[in-house]
Amino acid sequence: MKFTLLLLASMLSFLSFAQLTERELQEVRVRDSLRNNAEKVQALRRSAILELQGEDVGQLMQKFAGVAVRSYGGLGGLKTISVRSLGSNHSSIVVDGFTLVNNQTGQINLGQLQTESLESLQLITGGQKNYLVPSSAHVSGSSLLIETFEASFSEHKHQVRFSSKIGSFGQIDNYLSYKLGKERLYFSVFGKYRIANGTYPYSFRNGTSTYSGERLNNFYQDAMGGANLGFKTKKGGVVQLAYRKELVDQELPGAVILYSQNGFQTLKTNNDRIQLSYLKHLKRWSLRAFSAYSALSMVYTDSSYLNSAGFLQSDYSNSIGQVGLNARFRLKERLYLFGGIEEQLSMLVSTVDGIDEAKRAHSFGILGFSYYNSIFTLTGQFSGQYIVEENANQKRTPLYKMNPFFQLESKEIGKKVKGQLTLFYRNSFRMPSFSELYYNSIGNANLRPEKADQISLGKTLTIRNSKTQFVNRASVYYNQVRDKIVAIPTKNLFVWSMQNVGKVAIVGFEESAEWCQTLSKNWSTCLVLNYTFQRVSDITDRHAPTFQHQIAYIPKHSGNADLTVKRKNTGLRISNFASSLRYSLNENIPANKVDGFWLTDLAVFTKLPLRNHDIRLQFTLKNTFNSSYAIVRYYVMPGRSFLISLNYAFK
């Protein structure tokens, strides 16, 4: 707390004389940074999101180079990301300018983030271009910035979006949103409901034999809704208020081991979140203050648990409060300062032995600068984290950690072909979650915090003319992680075992290319390719059996190849994703091998543009060749399936 107050005092002293440019008066949301930085980072916009028809954000993230998605099932199943082989806790998920936090599990389930309202996804591995995002996003190893339709100002008075999907395995998915827009005001409401029985056939190979069956205990349904309000004050301030509620009722399918699925567990989730922000721009300075509160409750049941009651029920109640302040100042024509503070207060109350009442106060603070001239742009950032934590049964020593970041970007050179180089160093740090520390059947109270260093060199090439758009990105990087925390599922996707791997070395290369060509007045095509190589080795002890072995569940090779061909408003998209073999444990022996796989999706779509109305129909055949695969060992994934979608927009 003392660290936070000290940093706040420093920021207020800067505000007394620092100012920001008029050009940034409308930098209310991430959209501006996305538009100005589109070629330099990996991003998906609404048109591509609609063509992919991902059921959740987790599926969309498979299209980004350097990202490994861990999926434990189909619709609604737990999905987390690992960016450049760092754990999911090194990545911040920022939705409409607010960081999502879950200190209970330490993971944000991307399988429960809807896609219907998405305007864009943007993956940041280097420096933030939007300096007003929360400080926790600045200090993380990477950031996923998400912007939605509901939380933005609009030039249209009335807007309606509706989506309906019908798919295999009993899937029904409906979404409806309405937004009222005026010159200085917007108000939006939305609702979504989806359900699926999840009973899909699968083929599972165990050694030399193959077993076919149906996925059991995989029912899923969720309902969510919310409202957003934004208005601009007469003095130039922008106030945004949002409320969101989510209800999830799901069965937890077990691992398929020796032909038995052992699925008798369920999980019910109730999440309420309210958030408020205030943005103020003057001529030469900008300030954003925000606060958020979320209340998450979970009820886990196991009807097969052997005790006197004949079942197990575990209740969890997790409350998280966030408050923060960010600012950016122009001291001179080419020199900017930025800074921020954020405080996160978490409390977990549970009926599980070992937890009782866990509390954590996590303080973030950053101070940085950005200097540019005709040759390069230099950005430096110094950040600190201070954590105080206690449990009714255990106490941990308060922890303080500094996290520096430096980035050097060359000027974009060339006329017809433009090129740019980017070099950065980042140090990041993350605490174990409450689950990893205290859960009596899961946690390891002796876990050490995980620390990471990243060095990356990247280049960007762009070609743009009246008929061709081409963007090529490539990066080589070396990361070193100390005390890496590895989570491995044991019984089902709610029960894990946790361990530290002393030291991990990560050598990686990623490349992506996007080529769009106008062939004639009516015909156009786009080709999107990406490839990732990651050698992730345990280098802790050269005498250990896992020395120089690949860390569990990280493939060495992965990639995408997507082709879209359009004639006017009708088109065909072929999407491919491939992953090499992985290992279920850190010891790379044949018994731990998880086979690689190749997936192909085919989609046919058409758009019917009417006056003020857009109607879009799409048929998607997923896993077209009915590949049998598992991303996590023994958690078999769906085979061939279909999805029919209708999207309607009025403005």
How does this model look, in words?
By secondary structure, this protein is mainly beta. The chain has one domain: Maltoporin, Chain A (Beta Barrel), CATH 2.40.170.20. Helix content is 7%, strand content 58%. It contains six helices and 33 strands. The chain has helices at 2-15, 30-36, 46-52, 57-61, 135-139, 434-438; strands at residues 42-45, 67-71, 79-83, 91-95, 98-99, 118-124, 142-148, 158-167, 171-182, 185-196, 201-206, 209-214, 220-232, 237-252, 265-281, 285-302, 312-332, 335-350, 357-372, 376-391, 399-410, 417-430, 450-464, 468-489, 496-518, 523-538, 557-567, 570-579, 582-583, 593-594, 597-610, 613-622, 641-650. It has a 22-stranded antiparallel beta barrel. The longest helix is centred in the N-terminal third of the chain and has 14 residues, at 2-15. The two termini are 47 Å apart. Mean pLDDT is 87; it is low at 1-36.
Concise account of the structure shown:
The protein is mainly β and 651 residues long. The protein has six helices and 33 strands.
Name a few traits of the molecule:
single chain, 651 residues, mainly beta, Maltoporin, Chain A, 22-stranded antiparallel barrel, 5-stranded mixed β-sheet, 58% strand, globular
Question: How many whole angstroms does the radius of gyration measure?
Answer: 24 Å
User: What is the name of the CATH topology?
Assistant: Maltoporin, Chain A
As an assembly, this protein is: single chain
CATH homology superfamily name: TonB-dependent receptor, beta-barrel domain
Number of helices: 6
What is the residue-averaged pLDDT?
87
